[in-house]
């Protein structure tokens, strides 16, 4: 989160080495995240400007818009939800003005609507926005508190960590969450600082951030530094496919579809937003929306609820797609699916339209096939060639069914 990394960078003591203490060998409950988690998070649009009315209205909008039924089940409250200090017993206190009814009441409200509640804290002494205490040294208390409140998902950030090795901090919280006995999805938000894809499954995590923070922009040119654009994150995340699978997900950060006018960025075009969403689906990424779902236009809702693109992301095989051809500004990505179909992305990164061509042989399904365009929902049949005219900053998503 940019505010976390920029405005309070001086407060964050980021660890630069891995712990010599072996990580826990306990594996996460894969059933909690057998497919990439889907939901909504408050940060990308609202930052610290949150309260219980916003969360309740968002939960209602997730239902009325069809997003809940499309698979978005987690309603996640990010930073700034608690009082600046703990109470006399050392427990976190919901902010008395923003959340006067308490987090447990919000959890009940969300649960009654068929969804689950997520919460945020940091593996440090303070959270990234420095508005509330972090969990370092209070892991058991906080995990128990979250479980008692009915929390179902924890986003665990990396700020103000006092130089304590990452594996040590994230192991301690993983053990504390498991000790509660409550099923809680564990999201490690360590920004890829210490290659969490190599150790996060062993500390009980279900997903782990692979990069620095995303903003609603196509490209910034940063390799892994704030701010990251859509293309920058794809370039970093593409080589981590072997670490992804049911219960274990690379997290290239939250969705910027429908997020506008944040930190000077006007937002993505419709083509860019579809490419962003489609490539996240190809990479088997968690789909955590960050827009204001209470007032989103139909175009944004249609992107976020496209059932055929979501099906690619949620495919039970759990494979992360990879590029099979990279011609510089044009790429061809392939993702095998559980039923033997192939998901295919013809990805045009450039500033001009391009014609991208491949064959059924190149995608590993030689012979005739039915091609379904997942955005236009039209079908064609081919005996070999696969070709599409792709606008600038866009991706054509196809599902190939071999005959």
Main sheet specs: 8 strands, parallel
Total individual domains = 2
Strand order of the largest sheet: 7-6-5-4-3-2-1-8
Number of strands: 16
Per CATH, which architecture of the largest domain? Alpha-Beta Barrel
CATH fold node name of the largest domain = TIM Barrel
Helical content stands at: 10-25%
Mean pLDDT: 93
CATH H level, superfamily name of the largest domain: Aldolase class I
Q: What is the C-level CATH assignment of the largest domain? A: Alpha Beta
Report how far the terminal alpha carbons are from each other.
Answer: 46 Å
Report strand %. Answer: 15-25%
How many helices? The count is 11
What is the radius of gyration computed over CA atoms, rounded to a whole number of angstroms? 21 Å
Outline the structure in words.
The N terminus is likely disordered. The chain is 24% helix and 20% strand. Helix 3 runs parallel beside helix 5, helix 6 packs parallel to helix 7 and helix 9 runs parallel beside helix 11. The relative contact order is 0.13. Strands 7-6-5-4-3-2-1-8 form an 8-stranded parallel β-sheet. A 6-stranded antiparallel β-sheet has the order 9-10-11-16-13-14, covered by helices on one side. The protein has a two-stranded antiparallel ribbon with strand order 12-15. The chain is globular and about 70 Å long. It folds into 2 domains: 312 residues, Aldolase class I (TIM Barrel); 81 residues, Golgi alpha-mannosidase II (Immunoglobulin-like), CATH 2.60.40. The protein is built from 11 helices and 16 strands. With 403 residues, it is of the alpha/beta class.
């Amino acid at each position: 989160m940019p505010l976390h990394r920029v405005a309070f960078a001086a407060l964050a003591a980021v660890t630069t080495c891995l712990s010599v203490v072996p990580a826990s060998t306990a594996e996460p409950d894969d059933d909690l995240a057998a497919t990439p988690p889907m939901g909504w998070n408050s940060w990308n649009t609202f930052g610290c400007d949150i309260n219980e009315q916003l969360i309740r209205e968002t939960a209602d909008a997730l239902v009325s818009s069809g997003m809940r039924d499309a698979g978005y089940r987690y309603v996640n409250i990010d930073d700034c939800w608690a009082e600046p200090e703990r109470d006399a017993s050392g427990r976190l206190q919901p902010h008395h003005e923003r959340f006067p009814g308490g987090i447990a009441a919000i959890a009940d409200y969300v649960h009654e609507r068929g969804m689950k509640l997520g919460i945020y804290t940091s593996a440090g002494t303070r959270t990234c926005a420095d508005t509330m205490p972090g969990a370092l040294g209070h892991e058991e208390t906080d995990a128990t508190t979250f479980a008692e409140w009915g929390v179902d998902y924890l986003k665990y950030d990396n700020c103000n960590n006092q130089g304590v090795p990452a594996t040590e901090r994230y192991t301690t919280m993983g053990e504390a969450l498991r000790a509660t006995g409550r099923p809680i999805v564990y999201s490690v938000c360590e920004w890829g600082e210490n290659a969490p894809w190599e150790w996060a499954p062993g500390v009980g995590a279900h997903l782990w951030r692979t990069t620095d923070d995303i903003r609603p922009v196509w490209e910034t040119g940063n390799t892994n530094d704030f701010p990251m654009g859509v293309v920058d994150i794809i370039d970093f995340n593409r080589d981590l496919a072997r670490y992804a699978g049911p219960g274990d997900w690379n997290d290239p950060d939250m969705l910027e579809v429908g997020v506008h006018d944040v930190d000077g960025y006007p937002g993505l075009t419709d083509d860019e937003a579809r490419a962003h969403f489609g490539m996240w689906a190809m990479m088997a990424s968690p789909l955590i929306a960050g827009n204001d779902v209470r007032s989103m236009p139909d175009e944004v809702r249609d992107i976020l609820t496209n059932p055929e693109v979501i099906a690619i992301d949620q495919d039970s095989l759990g494979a992360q797609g990879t590029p099979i051809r990279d011609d510089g500004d044009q790429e061809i990505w392939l993702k095998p699916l559980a039923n033997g179909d192939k998901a295919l992305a013809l990805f045009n990164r450039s500033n001009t339209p391009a014609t991208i061509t491949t064959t059924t042989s190149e995608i590993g399904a030689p012979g005739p096939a039915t091609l379904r365009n997942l955005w236009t929902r039209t079908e064609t049949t081919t005996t070999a060639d696969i070709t599409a005219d792709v606008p600038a900053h866009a991706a054509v998503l196809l599902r190939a069914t071999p005959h």
